[in-house]
């Protein structure tokens, strides 16, 4: 039992019979949830959200310098597809309630642009070197064959991401103001709880930024599980993205992951399949979106 749990148990005179550990949270007897403090600005975030009439998060019992204590909220069962739709709606509500405009920070725009250019250049060189080595193999391994067979979608995704990034950068250079919101910044179905009302939990990474980062984390955490073509259109029915926001989102989404090489051939094939599935699903999503929106 760590010091944070011991302090809470002693302070509230609890007589715990069961502990459940979920991620970085400790649940005591399904009564209280104890988390280590990671965000010193969390109280101000909650106050701000409430001031914007967004109170879909658990009210803490106590926040100290070391830990946070919340009441335990039972998550009522509903199909995951329904939870994904409900989370999408709650996300659009969070963004609409906390929207404001500020002057474009051109230094920040350049930083984002240069960081993405460097990543894309690195990925291009990495996969170019990798396919060169693979083509020299006398007998391709299954993982090498998977890469060789699908190398075109990897390079096409890099090209698309770079081209879309350039369009975004050109627009941002000509914009004086930008739209920002209070993003949750860790959107995962495990952070959505439904009881009498919906709740978003785990606000440790919350910050003021573009709404696209919540959509990006949601997509990258669940792209294999849900139809994001429907989910993104559902979101935009409540909170339409601006063109420059959509360009940056698609640029991020299209960027391939780096496949880390390891000796276990079975694990390598699983890794590569996930990357390829991601790229094809992302390509289809973007293409379908562009068809529907002209």
Plain-language structure description:
This protein is an alpha+beta fold and 294 residues long. The chain has 2 domains: 3-72, 2-Layer Sandwich (Phosphorylase Kinase, domain 1), CATH 3.30.200; 96-292, Aminoglycoside 3'-phosphotransferase, Chain: A, domain 2. The protein contains 9 helices and 10 strands. It has helices at 3-11, 42-51, 80-97, 106-135, 142-174, 212-222, 228-238, 243-254, 265-292, and strands spanning 19-22, 25-28, 32-36, 62-63, 67-71, 100-103, 177-183, 192-194, 198-200, 207-209. It has a 5-stranded antiparallel β-sheet with strand order 1-2-3-5-4, covered by helices on one side. A 3-stranded antiparallel β-sheet has the order 6-7-10. A hairpin with a 3-residue loop joins strand 2 (25-28) and strand 3 (32-36).
Supply database-style keywords:
Phosphorylase Kinase, domain 1; 294 residues; globular; Aminoglycoside 3'-phosphotransferase, Chain: A, domain 2; alpha+beta; 14% strand; 9 helices
